Amino acid sequence: KNQVEQSPQSLIILEGKNCTLQCNYTVSPFSNLRWYKQDTGRGPVSLTIMTFSENTKSNGRYTATLDADTKQSSLHITASQLSDSASYICVAPYSGGGADGLTFGKGTHLIIQP
Amino acid sequence: KAGVTQTPRYLIKTRGQQVTLSCSPISGHRSVSWYQQTPGQGLQFLFEYFSETQRNKGNFPGRFSGRQFSNSRSEMNVSTLELGDSALYLCASSPTPLEASTDTQYFGPGTRLTVL
């Protein structure tokens, strides 16, 4: 069964600090891995999309890494800001189509404190 | 360019009723997918339409159905509503089908459905 597991479930850090969120996936066949940011009451916004051949991709202060051998991805946030407070969701589509077109992690709820 | 729009934004229904939600994708996008989000289960994939054809379907009962029109607008229907159907329903659009695509998906703001 295709699964995506994220950790930690929630995280509180001080403004200006860095943090790393983890995502482990068991999706086959693998197509790509996506990270989304979801503010409370809004739809998710795409941060990065990584294919099998990419191991690092950045979007401003957000840097995602992918290790296809260990089936792990991480999202690193540098110099956090209050606006980074949100849920971060890891998503693994798979290329087989069918019933599990997209497999979502439960998300990491990040709170940035001033 | 206008983003993905969903109507209505909020909806209150009672058990046994049916509901239709609407999604207008970004202009030029032909893939529309639907998701259910609840605090307990997180985001779950419902189905995807591309060029008026359903391409993928998640593990939801047949009460959940959808369709896509020739202008790529999509509707989702839930019949015989249950209390557990209370959720945020999100739709997303992209230029190409989800399967093996690296195109960015753009989500709408969602429709908050409450079933009493």
Task: Note the topology.
The complex is a heterodimer of chains A (114) and B (116).
Chain A (H helix, E strand, L loop, with lengths): L2 E5 L2 E5 L4 E8 L5 E7 L6 E7 L4 E4 L2 E6 L4 E6 L8 E8 L8 E3 L3 E6 L1
Parallel strand pairs in A: 2-11
Antiparallel strand pairs in A: 1-3, 3-8, 4-5, 4-9, 6-7, 7-8, 9-10, 9-11
Chain B lengths: L4 E3 L2 E4 L5 E6 L6 E8 L3 E9 L2 E5 L6 E5 L5 E5 L8 E8 L11 E2 L3 E5 L1
Parallel strand pairs in B: 2-11
Antiparallel strand pairs in B: 1-3, 3-8, 4-5, 4-9, 5-6, 7-8, 9-10, 9-11
Please explain how this structure is put together.
The complex is a heterodimer of chains A (114) and B (116). Helix content of chain A is 0%, strand content 57%. By secondary structure, chain A is mostly beta strands. Chain A has no helices and 11 strands. With 116 residues, chain B is an all-beta fold. Chain B has no helices and 11 strands. In chain B, the strands form 2 sheets. In chain B, strands 2, 4, 5, 6, 9, 10 and 11 form a 7-stranded mixed β-sheet that branches. In chain B, strands 1-3-8-7 form a 4-stranded antiparallel β-sheet, with no helix packed on it. The mean pLDDT of chain B is 93. Classes of the chains: A mainly beta (114), B mainly beta (116). The A-B interface holds A 31-32, 34, 36, 42-46, 49, 51, 89, 91, 93, 95-107 and B 4, 33, 35, 42-45, 48, 55-59, 90, 92, 98-102, 104-110.
Concise description?
Chain A is mostly beta strands. Chain A has strands spanning 3-7, 10-14, 19-26, 32-38, 45-51, 56-59, 62-67, 72-77, 86-93, 102-104, 108-113. Helix content of chain A is 0%, strand content 57%.
Morphology of chain B: globular
What share of the residues of chain B does DSSP label as strand, in percent? Answer: over 45%
Q: What structural class do helix, strand and pairing data of chain B support?
A: mainly beta
Radius of gyration of chain B, in angstroms, nearest whole number: 13 Å
Largest β-sheet summary of chain B:
7 strands, mixed
Number of strand segments of chain B: 11
Q: What is the average of the pLDDT values of chain A?
A: 90
- What helical percentage do the residues of chain B reach? under 10%
Shape designation of chain A: globular
Mean pLDDT level of chain B: 93
The N- to C-terminal Cα distance of chain B equals 37 Å
| Helix and strand element order of chain A | EEEEEEEEEEE
Distance between the termini of chain A: 41 Å
Number of helices of chain A: 0
Low-confidence stretches of chain A: none
Number of helices of chain B: 0
Q: Main beta sheet of chain A: strand number and arrangement?
A: 6 strands, mixed
Could you list the spans of chain B in which at least 5 consecutive residues all have pLDDT below 50? none
Strand content of chain A: over 45%
